[in-house]
Specification:
The complex is a heteropentamer, with 2 copies of chain A, 1 copy of chain C and 2 copies of chain D. Chain A is α+β, with helices and mostly antiparallel strands. Chain A is built from 9 helices and 19 strands. Chain A has helices at 41-49, 97-107, 112-125, 141-154, 171-188, 199-205, 223-228, 233-239, 325-331; strands spanning 6-14, 17-25, 30-34, 56-61, 64-68, 73-74, 82-85, 159-163, 191-195, 208-213, 216-221, 242-255, 260-275, 280-283, 293-305, 308-315, 319-323, 338-343, 349-352. The longest helix of chain A is centred in the middle third of the chain and has 18 residues, at 171-188. Chain C has helices spanning 12-22, 39-52, 65-73, 86-94, 143-155, 168-176, 187-192, 223-234, 236-244; strands at 28-35, 56-63, 80-82, 103-108, 110-115, 135-138, 163-165, 182-186, 197-200, 210-216. In chain C, α1 (12-22) runs antiparallel to α8 and α3 (65-73) packs parallel to α4. The chains are: A alpha+beta, C alpha/beta, D mainly alpha. The B-E interface holds B 49-51, 76-78, 80, 82-84, 86, 90, 92-95, 103-104, 106-108, 135, 138, 151-152, 155 and E 5, 171-172, 174-183, 185-186, 189-190, 193-194, 196, 271-272. Bound molecules: adenosine-5'-triphosphate (2 copies) and magnesium ion (2 copies).
Amino acid sequence: MTTPSLDAHLQVERTGFSLDLALTAGAGEVIALLGPNGAGKTTALRALAGLLPLTAGHLRLDGKALEDPAAGLHTPAEERPVGVVFQDYLLFPHLSALDNVGFGLRCQGRSKKESRAEALPWLARMGLEEHSAKRPGKLSGGQAQRVALARALAVGPRLLLLDEPLAALDARTRLDVRSQLRRHLAEFDAVAVLVTHDPLDAMVLADRLVVIEDGRVVQAGTPAEIARRPRTDYIARLVGLNLYQGVADGRRVKLASGAELTVADELTGPAFVAFPPAAVTLHRGRPDSSARNVWELTVAGLDLHGDQVRADLTGALPLAADLTPAAAAELDLSTGASVWATVKAAQTHAYPA
Amino acid sequence: MTTPSLDAHLQVERTGFSLDLALTAGAGEVIALLGPNGAGKTTALRALAGLLPLTAGHLRLDGKALEDPAAGLHTPAEERPVGVVFQDYLLFPHLSALDNVGFGLRCQGRSKKESRAEALPWLARMGLEEHSAKRPGKLSGGQAQRVALARALAVGPRLLLLDEPLAALDARTRLDVRSQLRRHLAEFDAVAVLVTHDPLDAMVLADRLVVIEDGRVVQAGTPAEIARRPRTDYIARLVGLNLYQGVADGRRVKLASGAELTVADELTGPAFVAFPPAAVTLHRGRPDSSARNVWELTVAGLDLHGDQVRADLTGALPLAADLTPAAAAELDLSTGASVWATVKAAQTHAYPA
Amino acid sequence: SSSKSTTPAASGASGSAAASASAPKATGTITVFAAASLTGTFNDLGKKFEAANPGTTVKFNYGGSSALAQSIVSGAPADVFAAASPATMKTVTDAKDTATDPKVFVRNTLEIAVPKGNPKNLTSLQALAAPSVKVALCATQVPCGSAAQTALTAAGVKLTPVTLEQDVKSALTKVELGEVDASVVYQTDVQAAGGKVDGVNFPEAAKAINDYPIAEVAKAPNAAGAAAFIAFVESTEGMQVLTAAGFQAP
Amino acid sequence: MRLIDTAPVRAKRGSRIPLALLLPALLGLVFLVLPLAGLLIRAPWSAMPSELSSPAVWDALRLSLICATSATGVSLVLGVPLAWLLARTEFPGRRVIRALVTLPLVLPPVVGGVALLLALGRNGIVGRWLDSAFGITLPFTTTGVVIAEAFVAMPFLVISVEGALRAADPRYEEAAATLGASRLTAFRRVTLPMIAPGVGAGAVLAWARALGEFGATITFAGNFPGKTQTMPLAVYLAMETDPDTAIALSLVLLAVSIAVLVGLRDRWMSTP
Amino acid sequence: MRLIDTAPVRAKRGSRIPLALLLPALLGLVFLVLPLAGLLIRAPWSAMPSELSSPAVWDALRLSLICATSATGVSLVLGVPLAWLLARTEFPGRRVIRALVTLPLVLPPVVGGVALLLALGRNGIVGRWLDSAFGITLPFTTTGVVIAEAFVAMPFLVISVEGALRAADPRYEEAAATLGASRLTAFRRVTLPMIAPGVGAGAVLAWARALGEFGATITFAGNFPGKTQTMPLAVYLAMETDPDTAIALSLVLLAVSIAVLVGLRDRWMSTP
Ligand SMILES: Nc1ncnc2c1ncn2[C@@H]1O[C@H](COP(=O)(O)OP(=O)(O)OP(=O)(O)O)[C@@H](O)[C@H]1O
Ligand SMILES: Nc1ncnc2c1ncn2[C@@H]1O[C@H](COP(=O)(O)OP(=O)(O)OP(=O)(O)O)[C@@H](O)[C@H]1O
Ligand SMILES: [Mg+2]
Ligand SMILES: [Mg+2]
């Protein structure tokens, strides 16, 4: 197959918001759609599902044109081989969990008995056998989400759309469902588009990330590429890096705020500079170290991240720094305190903007 | 104040499920309620809010009895000084975001204008000023959740109940809202009970964690205590440890499966053993190391976790191991492969069950 | 109740003299509850009465006789009640809600109503009994129905109508619309239909004449007016209006 | 105590029922029920047994129930799709159509009957053709009664169901569509069960209205015992000669309809 | 094209309207509209101008509109709380109460009027006392018309609104309660706006039913021009003398009610 399974250019206009997003994916590929709240992720999924007509652009799946506003073509949602897990589940309140999962099968003409027999293994895979007779109103949030997932998978879609499918799941179930999902996606060689806020989900499940902000793609690529060279603040936060945009001249990058960074890479013109919070060293007084980047900053907040303390610093340039609890105690850090931060040029990474 | 602000013993019976949960908290304390899907977290919050009557037990807030089924006392929800953020938000569909936030204020007798003027700063704090005129149907999932949060905070509750308040938020907003929430909780010295699946949220926001499974408390304590000495599989997963229960005899702990672990701590009787995935070393052939714990296991799955590879192993004892991608490549790990795992006794932690 | 009628109720000529004698006393508003079939004629009478008695206003409340009777029994503020049958008047007299004994002021005779041009050429009651003829009769509970039954019995005709109508007008409507081929109704109704139906006289009609009684209501707010109006109805002038509409003097 | 998470909870949770709602509610109830009390007091109880032993009464009652139920059936079959069309599609003149649907309510009953005759009578627009082509005549038949009752009752159903449809969240239909459900399937399997209370309410209204229907029926279908004479016609005619009988018959009609409505399981009237 | 995310989307998304719904819907529509067509064809168009120039017609029309609107108002004020009581509280005999509420629908119209007289007439249970204590008599007054119309129209509102309430998610009321809203406030500010389409539908039904009301009105309030003679009564009387006039008057009534119903903004009939 040389043509991509999914070939879409989604253009949607709504009052105060417009989406313009090109997406392609090969068979079996999983794409994660990331972006801040209100970026248009749900809008994009709705357009793919056929619930929101395109204003312009096109949508082809497995070589078949599903939508093409210029040609007046719009395949209704029910005729698209898609499965959707909605952000708020939308389980049918009058059907049991089992019948919710069997709904798509019944639409394909299966009898009530057949559809139930086929649906049960799906519920079992989600660890919900004992809840199969419950109505959605009597399920907990996480249980409901898993039923929604089973319902979408049960019809064997060629394009699976998932709006935060793991958000309400507890830690253990999340792992289980995540690997389930992976196995399933691999087996069926369908295309999957996954909206998530969890970078881990994105990294683990997706072959490719597409990051959108305000309806436009701001970066796309493999998880590794994106993690290495974030191009927006949102992505930098997502992958846990400090990111700055400025103009490079040799080994120095000048930021709009006036601050300057010395970097390892030689570069000219607009550039990004990124470094991990762990690359920042904090000092109580002005340090005498060889570090080329030294700033006096103020502590804006302190958080415990696992076994690390994350300090949020403001001043000449906003910065996140990771240090051990012991180091934090030694420096007597507290909100409002003034500290000196250093970053070795060798630990920064600069690349063209 | 020597008496706790919140003193509750929640007993609720429903078909197929029963909740029995004692909760106390001092003024300004934040309690995180954790537990697997269906554990009864939402049920507990509903009982605290007065939306579900207690079958037995009691509920006192700031020294005032709010509910006492034995005495026939039940203060209705509207007379309790509580604020609730629901798992599915429940924003009023016919009101703008601004009027949703102002709703509680209007109930307190404020005029439409006053309530709007007071509600706007709340929306602004959540970064939603520009969406203030939108109806909930036109908000994205994360926007809706922030409006729900603002709505609950705006009435200045004495007991704040939050059902996964950060689940739908993007990475950056999550950080912002999290610190907002912390600041707010600290300022108002109200008690907050927070349901979350995110261990990080729990650790950062809560003073004390209460873990429930199947309607019963299985462990409670400070984040550090719980992280050090998990008592159930769920908690171990949550804090990222391998956990086993067995019977200790000196430095050896015998598990029900027959496997034996050598540990650093000396102990007798029922005991837990925990160690982090990073403490596990993998080998292609039988190792000659000094490690006392050596098992031949099978790789069940591989996940990328940030910059680490997490291997799920099965066999004599199920195990999670973390290793660098380089190490994983060198070992040529793949699902189904057989490997030898070692754990140094010094890296384990044993404690009475 | 007929045993109670001691006054000579049935003399049109002497009545008119009495009426003109008592008329001048009438003032104010007179409320008349009248059977719906009297609508046209009583509206006329009302105008003439008001002209003859300046300072009076006649207000009519038309409706089904029985509904009117129920209203009066339940305390409706009526002065005069003119019913389409003695039976409905009896409801009121039985409840002792009439101030005067009811008097029959007009009578009405039956006719066969057929669609315009009489397409089925029906000329007698007997012809209605043919199976191919669809007939609408009034229900026996209403005056035109019981009268028709009397006539049919007198003629020795047995017929099965397709419907037993609740009143003359709906029977007539069905003839007008051609839904039935014939109906047995009052002459006044055929006349009021103004050429949309044709009427066929039949001899047995003489055996089934319907009386319209009129009476002053007990506790009438305007007793004097009531008496004056009743007198006016029975006067020569009144009778002229009524007979012009097809009614017969009693 | 065991049904702790169904309705009783609501009553319990809310503890006090606000006076501002309770007072007008009770006033409304009294207003609707008081006249019935009047009828009961006035009722000729001693004559009741003899009324009830008359087979004609039972004939009329049976016919009433059959016709009202059939009319409700017709209304459901035709009215629910019509309500769907009004609520879920967009076409020019939709508002005019909705207004037209309510007209049978406004039409004075007798005029309604005349209108039906003009349309479906022997010489009516369609009736003429039904007669000549199929030999079907509707007036003066039991079918005619059902038609007349459906004509006056269906608008209630259509408007109620349309209201319920508009209040229902259309996103469930979207979810069904993504699972491969055609609009029809989504309607049958998702929307209809979800708006069951609205349909139930509409059906109750239509049934009760059909049961009490008088004017259009007598005008269109006539009044023949055992064939087209329903209870309201019997009551009307009884009123002409013997009001007491009329009241007795009305009470029988009321008693039967209460029995049917109370017997309706709550399930027809409540959400899943 | 700009309103892309409101209703038209639904119509677009669904592309084809399923025949299994469209067919019965159209059949239903034809069934309801055909008789009106009959009336229009039969209508005495040439006589129309002279009918319409008669002030009596306009009096009756004005009275009809005023009374039907007042009756709808009364029904809303008393009926919405009653519907709430039926839908949202649990008390013994609730089903019987609901059945009682529908009885005015079943009551043959004239009997309804008699029942009202027995209750509120000069000699009625309550009427007697109203008369002696306050000198208020209701029968044969314009207020009496409103009462008779409200009596027959309110049940439609109550049942529609109850259905809408039952279909509404009670958890929004819970959310309101946690924000400090009393049951009354939650009802006014949350539930009522959310079920607006149901209330709208009920009000339309009640208004149309009141506008067409005949039997109870003529019996309870009489038939006095300018005071209690509404259009349906005028039509009834015209029917006695001149059916053509009756049809002309009916058409006027219909035209006015269509104008009012079409004029109702969709907003009264749709979800926010
Ligand atoms: N029906 C609608 N009409 C108009 N604007 C809308 C509508 N639905 C959403 N929007 C707006 O469109 C933008 C994109 O919304 P969308 O739901 O696609 O965001 P999202 O990326 O899914 O966000 P989240 O992560 O919070 O779920 C938002 O600004 C939102 O307010
Ligand atoms: N209305 C109800 N009636 C009966 N059982 C219910 C009802 N609601 C929830 N349950 C059951 O009670 C248990 C606890 O549910 P609850 O919603 O409290 O879980 P939870 O801890 O909030 O889970 P989650 O993390 O998935 O939201 C579950 O097994 C659920 O199926
Ligand atoms: Mg979204
Ligand atoms: Mg929950």
